[in-house]
Write a structure and sequence with these properties.
Elements: E1 13-17, E2 34-35, E3 38-39, H1 40-47, E4 53-56, E5 66-69, H2 78-88, E6 97-102, H3 110-119, E7 124-128, E8 134-142, H4 143-150, H5 161-165, E9 171-174, H6 177-180, H7 186-194
Parallel strand pairs: 1-4, 1-6, 4-5, 7-9
Antiparallel strand pairs: 2-3, 6-8, 7-8
């Protein structure tokens, strides 16, 4: 599945997390690493193209209309980044679907995003990998549910994404192994290069 429904994207907005220090990659900027002819940030942005998109991380070039913000203080982790991204989105209806993606997903695509959004009920939907583990940074969430989750704390700096999103009790969605894969190490990145994926 690599294309969204012909009627257009189901989501109302997206938050793409493009920070992190890439410690296991020798300090490399993970979102800037290329898979084929695209960076991983480009891949994530293509998957959520259309509605308002906020990238959370250091200043970087993005397509027109894509906002870039930073959690304060910087380096607060993905939960703090989600909170910062949510605050930067335009006003949306309570039932709008907000997609949250990490920018280190080599095979994420619009079809997977559409699948997640189509499965959202009152709270959200999260992708699970082949071992049944929830991939918290590949999900779609109702705006009201995500807002209420963020407002449970005044500061999410250093807190876990599971602590933020877990209480929403999302629907679990099984996707392809590739869609759930991320790049954490140089070996991961090299594997995607050498295995000849064409994304």
């Amino acid at each position: 599945m690599d294309t969204a429904d012909a009627a257009g994207p189901l989501h109302g907005a997206a938050i793409v997390l493009a920070g992190g220090r890439g410690e296991r990659l020798g300090g490399a900027d993970k979102p800037a690493l290329r898979i084929g002819d695209r960076s991983m940030l480009d891949i994530a942005l293509a998957a959520v193209a259309g509605p308002p998109v906020v990238v959370v991380g250091p200043d970087r070039e993005t397509p027109a209309g894509v906002a870039v913000v930073r959690e304060e203080p910087a380096g607060g982790g993905p939960a703090a980044a989600i909170a910062a991204g949510l605050a930067a989105l335009p006003r949306l209806p309570a039932d709008a679907r907000i997609v949250v993606l990490a920018a280190d997903l080599p095979a994420i695509d619009a079809g997977t995003v559409h699948l997640l959004c189509s499965r959202v009920t009152a709270g959200g939907a999260v992708l699970v990998d082949g071992s049944g583990r929830r991939q918290w940074l590949v999900g779609a969430w109702r705006r009201q549910a995500l807002t209420e989750a963020v407002h449970r704390r005044s500061d999410w700096h250093g807190r876990s994404v599971r602590e933020l999103l877990g209480p929403i009790d999302p629907v679990e969605v099984s996707g392809s192994e590739a869609a759930a894969a991320d790049v954490d190490t140089i070996e991961d990145w090299e594997r995607w290069q050498s295995d000849g994926y064409h994304l």
